[in-house]
Amino acid sequence: MDRIQAMRIFVKIVEQGSFQRAATLLHHSTAVISRHIADLEHQLGVRLLNRTTRKLSLTEAGQIYYVRVQRILSDIEDAESLTSSSAKEPGGKFRLYSQLGFGQFCLPEILSRYAHLHPKTTLEVTVSDRNINLIEEGYDVGIYSGIQKINGSMIGRQLAITEIVFCASPIYLEAHGMPERPSDLGRHDCLCFSFENLDKKWPVLGYQEEHLVPIQSKFVLNNLELLRHYARKGMGIILSPSYSLEEDLRNGSLVCVLPKYHARKIPLILAYPNRKLLSTAVRNFVDFMARTFPYPEIDHWIDLASLKAS
User: Is 282 exposed, middle or buried (0-12, 13-18, 19+ CB in 10 A)?
Assistant: First the structure.
């Protein structure tokens, strides 16, 4: 049995909700694709589909398998696309949207490297905290945080995780002391981002524990760069995404507070239309981002494991 072909057939059946429609689209007979599914279920040792004369539905195992197989097939398509296009120099133009924080702190370096590799491509970039609908507003690809809404017709590929962490300057900690437990945050000056009522209480998550700590807001701002500025000046403790703090933590202008805790983990998502509709330039950008973020389940900006071990 060709396992990859069987996966493609399985996904097509689920998408179409019918063996017959899937067979027509794949240019196979119903008997052939039925045999592929039977062989696949036999190989896995579980039933993937509930089949009756009126209805086709996924079993619980089938639902889990469907989600994973979609990602596997997308990765295979990416690899094939990267191989076939590696010798081509894409030209043209495409429009890119990015969520504000990621755009400010991460895109400068990323787009500089991309432009160096693909000098014939022109990018039109919009960085905004507005939740842009790519299709309605004519964008080719977008970078979103996991708390934003993405059009359901787009493909969403996770790039990475960013943890929302607690930091302060050595100057502040020398004057006010290092918090040792989540409740200690209530005695400190806190620099707050004006979002989701974070000026009143901070969520603090650790291993098998969760706290919601009332805090004292020293400043409430809607700009991460200003929050970093005041934190470096010793004005208080900041709560911010790891991608905005990497440089400060590495050069020592900020240090991690309560390193065994974080406030939240937020996925960062690359969204784009169906790969078959992508221009060469957009396809190459998608492949470039996949190479830039090869491990989508980790935080790429801070080695949190080493911070938490310290």
Answer: buried
Query: pTM score, two decimals?
Result: 0.67
The residues near 133 (Cβ < 8 Å, ≥ 6 apart) are 151
Sign of CA dihedral 174, 177, 179, 183: negative
Q: Which residue in the block uniquely carries the two structure tokens 């983990």?
A: 265
Count of residues for the chain?
Answer: 310
Assess if CATH 3.30.470.20 describes domain 163-265.
no
Q: What tens digit of pLDDT does each residue of 196-237 get? A: 677 788 999 988 888 899 998 888 888 888 999 999 999 999
Residue with tokens 């539905």: 57
Rg (CA), the chain: 24
Closest CA to 278 of 94, 118, 127: 94
CATH dotted code for 3-85: 1.10.10.10
Packed helices 3-16 and 19-26: angle between N→C axes, nearest 10 degrees: 120
Asked if 5 and 61 touch (Cβ cutoff 8 Å), the reply is no
Q: Average per-residue pLDDT in the chain?
A: 86
